[in-house]
């Protein structure tokens, strides 16, 4: 059962986007994606609010998340959050199989 954490990073003067760009250009994103148990790590820019960047961060299980949180990358991430003065909203979801009643609404 996968666990997905959705983080909204909000800042000023484009700082949320600058943060995401530095995470990518500095190699931190690639390093996180290479971690055991990582299923997805991807940023999205809000159409409604250009000062908000959404991160979808998905892991195989809680053990993989715990290992990630204990990794040196968390120090890098924390420093960049401070550098860009970001505020966060976090939601967490546990995957489930799609019910048959919902499948007719999903176009593949």
Overview of the structural elements:
With 108 residues, the chain is α+β, with helices and mostly antiparallel strands. The chain has one domain: Alpha-Beta Plaits (2-Layer Sandwich), CATH 3.30.70.100. It has helices at 15-25, 28-33, 62-69, 73-83, 100-103, and strands at 3-10, 38-45, 52-59, 87-94. It has a four-stranded antiparallel sheet with strand order 2-3-1-4. A hairpin with a 6-residue loop joins strand 2 and strand 3 (52-59).
Strand order of the largest sheet: 2-3-1-4
CATH architecture: 2-Layer Sandwich
Question: What number of domains?
Answer: 1
Let me know the average pLDDT.
Answer: 95
Radius of gyration: 15 Å
Overall 3D shape: globular
- The percent of residues in helical segments reads 25-40%
Q: How would you summarize what this structure contains?
A:
With 108 residues, the protein is of the alpha+beta class.
Structural descriptors:
single chain; 108 residues; alpha+beta; Alpha-Beta Plaits; 4-stranded antiparallel β-sheet; 5 helices; globular
Write the layout of secondary structure elements.
Layout: E1 3-10, H1 15-25, H2 28-33, E2 38-45, E3 52-59, H3 62-69, H4 73-83, E4 87-94, H5 100-103
Antiparallel strand pairs: 1-3, 1-4, 2-3
């Amino acid at each position: 059962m996968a666990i997905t954490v959705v983080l909204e990073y909000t800042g000023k003067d484009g700082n949320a986007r600058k943060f995401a760009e530095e995470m990518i250009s500095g190699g931190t994103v690639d390093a996180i994606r290479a971690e055991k148990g990582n299923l997805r790590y991807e940023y999205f820019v809000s159409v409604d609010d250009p000062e908000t960047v959404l991160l979808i961060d998905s892991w195989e299980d809680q053990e993989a998340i715990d290992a990630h949180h204990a990794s040196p990358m968390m120090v890098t991430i924390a420093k960049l959050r401070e550098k860009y003065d970001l505020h966060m909203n976090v939601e967490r979801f546990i995957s489930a199989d799609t019910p048959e009643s919902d499948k007719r609404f999903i176009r593949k």
